[in-house]
TrEMBL record:
GO molecular function: 2-oxoglutarate-dependent dioxygenase activity; metal ion binding
The protein, known as: TauD/TfdA-like domain-containing protein
Record flagged with keyword Cell inner membrane: no
Entries under Gene3D superfamilies matching the protein: Clavaminate synthase-like
Cofactor(s) the record lists: Fe(2+)
Superkingdom of this protein's organism: Eukaryota
Keywords of this entry: Dioxygenase, Iron, Metal-binding, Oxidoreductase
Entry's family note: Belongs to the TfdA dioxygenase family.
Keyword Transmembrane: no
GO cellular component: cytoplasm
Domain TauD/TfdA-like: 2-134
Record InterPro entries: AtsK-like, TauD-like_sf, TauD/TfdA-like
């Protein structure tokens, strides 16, 4: 839905763009906090727009936590474009869902077309949150 809400001209501008994604910062942050990093610290390239192979719908594939730059753009251009996309994704609450997690809650989403952002809206000292994540191996975006 986030992709579909963009103007046709803007969707055309995004077509074919790739972005650098980095897990280095998350890896370093986990190590500094004394936690075991969940995955290797990698830097990869992904399309800004991807098409779900099942539904054929296009979606934005950028994430404030991992996307670092639009490849081939000057730093200022990349920051402006990504800033707009992050604002677009973060401010349109009518295509967001919040799941209130309780004991035995199960939440499913498709990483190919859904952004997941954990909101720390609880006292982690009083109520530790623990979860298990299963990820299905999919196609390379």
């Amino acid at each position: 839905e986030a992709y579909d809400r963009l103007s046709p001209g803007f969707r055309e501008r995004l077509a074919g763009l790739t972005a650098t994604h980095s897990g280095v910062e998350q890896h370093v942050g986990s190590a500094k906090a004394g936690m075991v990093p969940k995955r290797d610290a990698i830097i990869s390239s992904h399309p800004v727009v991807r098409q779900n192979p099942v539904t054929k719908r296009k979606s934005l594939f950028v994430n404030k936590e991992f996307t670092r730059a639009i490849e081939g753009y000057k730093k200022e251009e990349s920051e402006a474009l990504l800033g707009f996309l992050y604002q677009h994704l973060g401010n349109a609450v009518d295509f967001q869902i919040r799941a209130l997690l309780r004991q035995y809650s199960i939440v499913f989403w498709d990483n190919r077309s859904t952004l997941h952002t954990a909101t720390v809206d609880y006292d982690s000292n009083a109520t530790p949150r623990e979860g298990f994540r299963l990820t299905v191996t999919g196609e390379t975006p």
